[in-house]
Amino acid sequence: MQNLQSRQRQWMPIIFLAPALIMFVIYVIFPICQSLLLSLYEWDGLGEKTFIGLDNYAELFTDEQFWVSLRNNIYWMVLYMLAPPLGLAVALFLNQKVLGIRLVKAMFFFPFVISQVVVALVFSWFYDPSYGLLNIAITSLGFEPIAILTEEKWATFGIIAAGLWPQIAYCMILYLTGLNNLSPDQIEAARLDGAYGWKMLRHVILPQLRPATFIAIVVTVIGALRSFDLVATMTSGGPYGSSNVLAYFMYEQSIFNYRVGYGAAIATVLFIIMDIYIAYFLWRMLKSEKA
Amino acid sequence: MFPTPIEKLSKPANISYRVAIWVALIMWLLPLIAVMMTSARSAADINAGNYWGIPSEWRILENYVEVFAVTPMAQYLWNSIIITLPAVIGAVALSTLAGYALAKFKFKGNTLLFATFIAGNFVPFQILMIPVRDLTISTGLYDTATGLILFHVAFQAGFCTLFMRNFIVGLPDELIEAARVEGVSELRIFWNVVLPLVRPAIAALSVLIFTFIWNDYFWALVLVQSDEVRPITAGLSALKGQWLASWQLISAGSIVAALPPVILFFAMQKHFIAGLTLGATKG
Q: Are B224 and B235 in contact (CB under 8 A)?
């Protein structure tokens, strides 16, 4: 009996894990390996694959569109970093107990719940060159109207601003939960010591909010690198590829230009950049696990 | 409590704060409010450039009826439902099993598997795109709901397993051990002991990934192409191309697409936030 049970216990985790693991291997692990391999081939998606070694990468590094996309991804990452502090600011603003505050908090969170396609439509509307609210505001101040999404130097920033809207909401929720879990004793003690306002925030509150900050930064970086929906819906990478990002550039090359091997090389570059953050996240997560 | 509770401040500060939160809310949601207003406008208003004022006539009912009558919006909505619900159920079911195995059994490679699920959950979609598309085509599942569902189940299993594993790790071992001593089979332990305890986590997870899958746009573009299967995100974006001038219809469609996750969020706010911030309390 004892023996049977321990043998059963040995096999049980494998049986429990099998369905999820099989699906994950088929749809995630295996495709990653295939893509990495495919980046060494020239392929139109239908005909013969031709092995060309690192030629796709060599071409990539001389492709101006690649550098524009990479530069835009860096803009995304840098500007997206505004989301955690702004989310914290909103959270501090709303962390009160007055009538209706729960409703207000929930509605502040709206932009994160709705689809990015809808966010894109909402903002295209907001930026509309002839009647959009933004241009009404700009012209009423006496400036020339700007067609944000059709001007090469503005398009990326217009899309990033749209993306910040849900991202700030996301960070706000993370921080609101963090603020909820603060230790009241520490705050009282600090108040007795004469800490208040900025000093209190910096030395007492922020250290306690570190777990929230960590998650906020991780999801923000990942969100910036994953940016696809907004670019696809608002500009399709245009005008003249000026608002392209790696994620959309890859899609464009593989689906519209039938350059699948080249697309795989772009995806590989994006994957490698992302791996840095994944590795950091894993390291932190597993370290806190052991502690 | 930080910042200092507003009740402790002067009366004018109190009143201005209470007003300020609502003003801030309206400013924050202004782009969305504009779309809601537009969904109630007449075509004449739009052509005249009345995008932001009060609609000259309210056509709420007419516009929403029209969007369902002249566009495949009802079909898109239905497609989103029959893709999202099975995918949520599948992903949660698989990951509850896997999460339990990772949380309560010691075996070689446990940590490695756990790390694999976490890492896989963060990879860019583009690295999966071509092989997943080819696989879906070669199995005859391209442009079917099943093709999308299978992918979503597999991909979401990464995040869900991370989530369930972290929840189940916190459950007391004693209950499971006690059942083992009594000679209860492992499957029964899972079903009768573990499952009732993880119900809150299942609720939180379901609400959260419902919105993730509902709002997916990328895979809807890559794995599906016809109106018969297209979910609402891809449908809406296709409509935008065809009905460029009819902003009142696009706006009404956007509101329809946004409603299900918003309603779900409102109905299950506590679960939703618990799901979203589970990782935020540790790490």
A: no
